[in-house]
Design a protein that fits this description.
InterPro entries: MetI-like, MetI-like_sf. It is found in: Cell membrane. The protein contains 4 helices and no strands. It has helices at residues 2-27, 32-41, 45-73, 75-84. Helix content is 88%, strand content 0%. By secondary structure, the protein is mainly α.
Length: 85
């Protein structure tokens, strides 16, 4: 069941990142979501794009971290799946 657990964890990390940014946009006075929303409201377009780029970079890094962790923990599963075919 561990491969499915890791798939669920990777999905939940992306949803959690989205929810964190949305909650910062709605009810916070600091954070990346607040920074993007404040830059949008003040028509600071380069700051909006830099915040979005940073958010994408952070999401990509989290996904890469989970892929590396999954590859380390589930090394046996990748070899097992290749042998069964």
């Amino acid at each position: 069941a561990l491969p499915q657990v890791f798939a669920g964890m990777r999905t939940s990390v992306s949803v959690a990142l989205i929810m964190i940014v949305v909650s910062e946009m709605i009810a916070s006075s600091n954070g990346l979501g607040y920074f993007i929303l404040h830059a949008q409201r003040t028509f600071n377009v380069p700051a909006v794009y830099s915040g979005i780029f940073l958010l994408g970079l952070f999401g990509y890094a989290l996904n890469a971290l989970f892929l590396r962790l999954e590859g380390f923990v589930l090394n046996w599963h990748r070899g097992y799946a290749a042998k069964r075919l």
